[in-house]
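Hi support team,

I submitted a single chain yesterday and got back a structure, but I'm not sure I'm reading the token output correctly. Could someone confirm the output below corresponds to the sequence I sent? I've pasted both exactly as they appear in my results page.

Thanks,
R.
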Amino acid sequence: MLAEKKEQQQEKLLEVNGLKKYFTTGSSVGTKNYIKAVDDLSFFIYGGETLGVVGESGCGKSTMGRTVLRLQNPTEGETFFDGENINHYSKRKLRELRKEVQMIFQDPYGSLNQRMTVGAMLSEVVRTHKIVPKKDTVSYIQGLLQDVGLNPEHYWKYPHEFSGGQRQRISIARALAVKPKLIVCDEAVSALDVSVQAQVLNLLQKLKKEYQLTYLFISHDLSVVKHISDRVAVMYLGQIVELADKHDLYKKPLHPYTQALLSAIPTVGSEKKKERVILEGDVPSPMNIPQGCRFHTRCPLAKEHCKVKAPEWREVEEGHFVACHEV
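Hi R., thanks for writing in. Yes, this is the structure output for that exact sequence:
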């Protein structure tokens, strides 16, 4: 009943059903080999919340983010944004969608055009989407730069004249320029120094309130995700294995993989020390995913049935979803 009331109060801005993204590799005679980067993902994001996505490198987090935004075409599945299935959008409709959804990339240097000034880059975005009248473009962009903690005179400078943290602030300003509803942050702070990470995270939270934003926040850093997220999804080998409110997930993780990840977070001061869960073996190749539960090759709780039958994705507690036979 409580879950129904919550859903009535909050509308789903983004809903993903059965999303798959496969890449074809060199084929042998008569067959094709596939890398199953994203394999049957289903989740939703309420308007105004931050959904964090965590997992080891290579689990498909970034591919999921790009596929959700249609920067890459999905192999299968449906993605609904504001109630419309964007996987069927034409090129014209996708251009219109770019005003609603934006992405902040991991490498701020690589994602910015080094031959253009900050003002020229942001002006191009503003003019293309006709955000403000032409005569107001400069003042609008300088206002954005101030909102992200930069100075108005930075409008005239080039990306190489800034530090890494400042360049990421420029990337944030560029994402904000079109007044989006949803921003996908793909490892947006992982390339920054720890002190700068904290500043950028606080900035993202401030902008979320001021601009009424919704975030899909992708990271491998569990502490960062806990700080910024409302709910957290844990990915393993192309699938989400657990999803819950961040307080529930960090206090009572149910999936063995989540337990292992959280046990690796360092404790500070008087905090109770956690028993470290060491996972044996390596992550299987997405070209050769194990039968049954794809985590069974490393799971300390694995039984025989885990090797043959994939676990059902189910809600075990209110708002707490998990895919595991032993929970």
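A quick pointer for reading it: The CA atoms of residues 51 and 61 lie 12 Å apart. Let us know if anything else looks off.

Best,
Support desk
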